[in-house]
Design goal:
Blueprint (H helix, E strand, L loop, with lengths): L11 H10 L16 H11 L3 H10 L7 H20 L6 H16 L9 H15 L7 H16 L4 H16 L16 H10 L3 H18 L3 H15 L8 H15 L1 E4 L5 E4 L2 H14 L8 H12 L2 E5 L11 E7 L3 E9 L1 H4 L22 E8 L8 E7 L7 E9 L2 E9 L2 E7 L3 E8 L10 E10 L2 E10 L5 E5 L9 E8 L2 E7 L11 E7 L3 E2 L4 E12 L2 E3 L5 E8 L2 E9 L5 E7 L7 E9 L5 E10 L7 E6 L11 E2 L4 E9 L9 E10 L27 E9 L5 E6 L9 E10 L5 E11 L3 E7 L3 E2 L5 E9 L8 E16 L5 E3 H8 L13 E18 L5 E6 L5 E9 L8 E8 L15 E4 L9 E7 L5 E8 L3 E9 L3 E7 L7 E10 L2 E10 L8 E6 L12 E6 L3
Parallel strand pairs: 18-25, 27-33, 35-42
Antiparallel strand pairs: 1-2, 3-4, 4-7, 5-6, 5-8, 8-9, 10-11, 11-14, 12-13, 12-15, 15-16, 17-19, 19-20, 19-23, 21-22, 21-24, 24-25, 26-28, 28-31, 29-30, 29-32, 32-33, 34-36, 36-40, 37-38, 37-39, 37-41, 41-42, 43-44, 44-47, 45-46, 45-48, 48-49, 50-51
Length: about 1050
């Protein structure tokens, strides 16, 4: 919380003393009023009218050399103030203009070093920066803005002009508490320090200001109150805010938020032992909501509808039942009730057959599809009533209900009712489960035992698809039976499954299970246009010609086609609306192009292009096409150079090393930018070294995002200096030696030459705890015994430059060992432990004393070899395993003056018939030999499970379900072959789903299948490596296909 001096409202004598004690705090505004020039008078008039751009032109034209210090500072303030306000009022997003204005205002502030010299221009510049950060649509950064508002408030708190100080102080507080009109909710007024709000309340004289200050104090304390006394004050502040009635514009705000407060913490009491407690006061809340709706009509208060709904929610009857899940046979059946404004609850349980009693042909109510289940009074198996107390306080009640004995296996409907309310909940007692896969053209169902995951054959399956069309429910039903693998597959006609909700029911004897799902979205199902637009340049000046082109494709049945000879319409829109429109006829390549002559009347800013069908009835897409800028190419460049090593690569730094960098400013036509002003900023942020393996078709692969883009870093050094005769500045700084993690330093230099043209140069330096990094990978993750395993190692320094490093490579065969000790002291391991793990719970319930003695991998040494990466930082290592198993290939760098750098990768060795390779995973896992395949390949995939004798539903999926199979993992590992065809282009997903001890486990692995037959190789060669302006050049383009 920022420290603010209190402003006290005193009696007449006290006011005189208050004014006298704060005199001499800087020039009165009258001393710098624009009496020296008609220009200033005209500019101030335009500024006060909101014509900031016109006012700025006049401010910029004033010659500062003829002004006094006060007049010069006021003009400099107005330049920055008007500049950002003018830019904020336009649709264009030119950050450079706003940044220049921010720096101008900062210069006005920084020019005053002594607190006692702070003047009106200083205070107004602080307030302007507060507005800059808070009120601009492009910013809305309240906390950044408050830092400046707070400084301005401090200054006005010491002003001797009490009336002006009061108005200015309250104006800033009110401004900081207002939300932007395009925000729905707001929280920032609650963040204004309480001391500032108390000051506002003390100096406020008008009823409106008194009410507003009390309202803001109530909102602040309702969120930040840290003591019971502060909580008690919330109601007092709200009461003070509403006592002025509807003439106060904040009256409805206070009523609404007061009601919300008492709905949560309305009754605060203290017992005889001094313990505080809080309870909601819903009765008081309802009165406040109804006071609001009685005082204001709909449309007069933005809270009217919310108040009506809130009062209704509090006073209506409510009843819900919550069933925690599916019950296994012989389990205790229990559920929870939550209720409000009811006195008696009736509970009934009906036995149902989901394949028979579910009928979606009727209209659904609030119970959804549950309302479509037919109930027969003859099948009611339980019925009882519960009496609950309702004291008229509108408080929620909760209770748990348990049946005195388990229900038989089957499906049941729990119906709870009170008054006019009737709620339904499905209650299942079963030990079967199901997995579904749903695409546009197919619906696959797998039914299995919920404990072992073994498939259940000949189970009855009913699949409902339903949707609402024109307020009428449509439905369709398909029935069938599972095969020997527990699978039932249904083809869906019409390919429109994405528009239907679904319900799947499976039944085997009395055992039943159900799964409902919403509409499904299938990747690539959208049968639409894909448009790529490009202009020959990203930015243009007024009066130039824009040359642009569009290339189109249509997605039809999952395949791109070329819409040749199609006619499409377009329009180009900018900050002032549409500037061009027309039609284009696509050629045989699906392309078309056009030109646009820009005029001086075209506004600066961003321009978008939108495409429609020829008749204009359907949009096809659009994008940003270009910008219009009044830009000037820089005449000089700024570079930030860090030391280099003997080979010319950037030097690497270790934590604790000093860092030195050279800023060099030089004109493009030659020569240094001497004696130029340089603003240097060094920021520090955490650094994590990453390296990505180059790929032939890199755009097809997911590349991890840079999670550090948002972190601009902490400023550790900032200074202003000048370039020397050579246009250079040398900067140095120390790095922490004890820092555990690597750091990155961003060095930014802003150079301003004599023409006041500013150019920025940036570079970064990485400071790490190690000079190099090692990245390993195995070419194939799964091989058969006797086949070679090839491991590749890449070594890079902190700057990602290749470095030659020698290392020891260790190959270890990993063998899983797990030993438990029974309460008798006997060790349990191997097949006996695996058998016990198949039970629903392990260790067995009711047998205390079980504990794990050992659990993890033991290592068997295979070989050790020295490997050295070459000058490109690459090395390859190959060995041939003879035994099936799980192998670790580890690297340890051999560097004498550094701690060892270690890393590791893994490979699996198995035959199709192997069932145990001494590997263990916590859940089902997929290991694929590679992440890239060609159409026609057969992928080797290993599936592992945490226990033996499990069944895994294995699928290959993409735009549709390409293939599926049920895999029996007899022990804990299974090797399978998966054919990859052209349907998997450009990528697909391998998915393994397993039911194990009532839990559905899923593992996925993405593969890439490049469309190599459709790629073209393009080579561009030039007759020269470099050209001078206006030179003629010749380029040769050579295009070949994949063959």
């Amino acid at each position: 919380m920022f420290g603010i001096r209190s402003i006290c409202v005193l009696a007449a004598f006290g006011m005189i003393a208050f004014a006298a004690s704060l005199s001499g705090r800087g020039p009165n505004e009258s001393t710098i009023r624009p009496t020296y020039d008609g220009q200033m008078e005209q500019a101030e008039k335009l500024f006060n009218e909101g014509a900031y751009a016109r006012a700025l032109q006049i401010y910029d034209a004033i010659d500062l050399r003829q002004l006094s210090n006060d007049e010069r500072r006021w003009t400099q303030f107005r330049r920055g103030d008007a500049r950002w306000r003018a830019a904020a009022g336009t649709a264009q997003q030119d950050d450079s203009v706003s940044e220049l204005a921010r720096r101008q205002l900062t210069e006005v502030i920084d020019a005053i070093e002594d607190v006692k010299d702070r003047d009106l221009a200083w205070a107004k510049a602080q307030e302007s920066l507060g507005d800059f950060w808070w009120t601009r649509r492009q910013s809305n950064n309240w906390h950044q803005g408050w830092q400046h508002y707070n400084e301005a408030l401090e200054w006005w708190a010491g002003s001797s002009d009490l009336d002006r100080a009061r108005d200015a102080y309250l104006s800033i507080v009110w401004k900081a508490s207002e939300r932007p009109e395009y925000y729905n909710e707001w929280w920032w007024p609650n963040s204004i320090p309480m001391s500032v709000l108390e000051n506002a309340a003390k100096i406020a004289e008008r009823d409106e200001d008194i009410a507003r200050a009390n309202y803001l104090m109530a909102r602040h304390q309702s969120q930040y109150a840290s003591s019971w006394r502060q909580r008690l004050s919330v109601s007092d502040y709200f009461e003070r805010a509403i006592e002025f009635g509807p003439k106060n514009p904040w009256h409805d705000d206070a009523l609404f938020f007061y009601a919300q407060w008492v709905s949560n913490q309305g009754i605060i009491t203290r017992d005889a032992n001094g313990q505080w407690s809080v309870e909601p006061d819903f009765v008081r809340a309802v009165k406040l909501y109804r006071d609001l709706t009685a005082t204001y009509t709909k449309g007069e208060s933005r809270f009217y509808d919310n108040a009506v709904n809130a009062a209704k929610e509090i006073t209506e009857q409510h009843l819900t039942a919550a069933i925690p899940g599916v019950f296994l046979p012989n389990s205790e059946v229990k559920f929870d009730l939550q209720y409000r404004n009811v006195s008696d609850i009736t509970c009934s349980i009906y036995r149902i057959d989901l394949t028979r009693d579910l009928d979606l042909s009727k209209e659904m109510d609030n119970n959804g599809w549950l309302s479509q289940v037919r109930l027969n009074e003859n099948n009611r198996v339980r019925n009882w009533s519960i009496e609950v107390k309702d004291a008229g306080l509108h408080r929620w009640g909760n209770r748990s209900e348990s049946l005195d004995e388990p229900l038989p296996i089957g499906a049941y409907m729990l119906v709870t009712s009170a008054g006019d309310i009737a709620q339904r909940e499905l209650l299942l007692v079963t030990d079967i489960a199901l997995i579904t896969k749903r695409y546009d053209d197919e619906h696959l169902v797998y039914v299995a035992d919920a404990i072992s995951g073994h498939p259940i054959s000949d189970a009855d399956v009913s699949i409902w698809h339903y949707k609402k069309v024109n307020r009428t429910w449509m439905h369709r039903r398909n029935d069938g039976n599972t095969d020997a693998d527990g699978l039932f597959s249904m083809n869906i006609d019409g390919g429109d499954a994405h528009s239907w909700n679904s319900i799947v029911v499976a039944k085997s004897g009395d055992r039943q299970v159900i799964m409902s799902g919403p509409r499904v979205w299938t990747p690539g199902r959208f049968e639409g246009w894909r448009l790529f637009t490009a202009a020959d340049r990203p930015a243009y000046r007024p009066g130039e010609t824009v040359k642009w082109k569009v290339t189109a494709r249509q997605m039809q049945k999952g395949t791109y086609v070329t819409p040749d000879e199609e006619v499409i319409a377009y329009e180009i829109n900018g900050p002032q609306g549409r500037i061009s429109e027309g039609t284009l006829t696509l050629n045989t390549f699906g392309s078309a192009w056009s030109e646009l002559e820009l005029t001086p009347e075209n506004a600066l800013g961003e321009y978008q292009i939108a495409f429609k069908t020829k008749d204009g009835k359907r949009g096809l897409g659009g994008s940003t096409l270009f910008r219009i800028e009044e830009y000037k190419l820089p005449e000089f460049e700024v570079t930030v150079q860090t030391p280099t090593q003997d080979d010319g690569t950037p030097k690497t730094f270790l934590l604790g090393d000093p860092v030195q960098a050279t800023i060099n400013a030089s004109y493009y036509f030659g020569g240094p930018v001497a004696n130029a002003n340089v603003e240097l900023v060094v920021r520090q942020r955490p650094y994590w070294h990453t390296w990505y393996r180059p790929r032939d078709y890199g755009w097809l692969y997911d590349r991890p995002q840079n999670n550090n883009w948002w972190n601009q870093g902490q400023v550790i050094k900032q200074e202003t200096t000048r370039t020397d005769a050579n246009g250079q500045v040398v900067i140095s700084f120390d790095t922490p030696a004890e820092q555990g993690n690597a750091l990155e330093y961003i060095i930014e230099a802003r150079v301003t030459d004599s023409s006041r043209r500013e150019v920025t140069g940036t570079s970064s330096v990485r400071v790490t705890s190690q000079r190099h990094y090692v990245y390993p990978r195995v070419v194939k993750s799964v091989v058969m015994p006797g086949a070679p395993i090839e491991a590749e190692f890449v070594t890079r320094d902190a700057n990602n430059a290749p470095v030659s490093i020698q290392g020891s490579v260790y190959v270890r065969r990993q063998i899983w060992r797990e030993v438990w000790v029974a309460p008798t002291g006997r060790e349990v391991f191997g097949k006996e432990l695996d058998g016990m793990r198949k039970q629903l719970m392990f260790p067995p319930p009711g047998e205390p004393g079980w504990y794990c003695r050992r659990r993890g991998f033991e290592e068997e040494s295979v070989l050790t070899q020295t490997v050295t990466t070459d000058k490109d930082g690459k090395a390859s290592f190959t060995f041939t395993p003879e035994k099936p198993g799980y192998y670790k290939i580890a690297w340890s760098s051999i560097v004498t003056d550094e701690p060892p750098v270690t890393t590791e990768t893994y490979a699996w060795v198995a035959r199709p018939g192997d069932v145990d390779i001494s590997y263990r995973s916590d859940g089902v896992q997929i290991v694929v030999e590679s992440d890239t395949f060609r159409a026609g390949d057969e992928a080797t995939v290993m599936i592992t499970t945490p226990v033996s004798d499990r069944y895994v539903l294995f699928t290959l999926e993409g735009r549709s379900l390409y293939s599926h199979q049920l895999v029996h993992v007899a022990n804990t590992a299974k090797l399978i072959r998966v054919p990859i065809d052209s349907r998997s282009i450009p990528n697909a997903m391998l998915t393994a789903s397993m039911i194990d001890r009532t839990i559905i486990q899923t593992a996925q692995a993405a593969i890439v299948v490049p469309p190599v037959d459709q790629f073209l190789n393009v080579d561009v060669a030039s007759t020269s490596d470099a050209y001078q302006p206006r030179d003629d050049g010749t380029f040769t383009v050579n295009v070949t296909d994949s063959e």
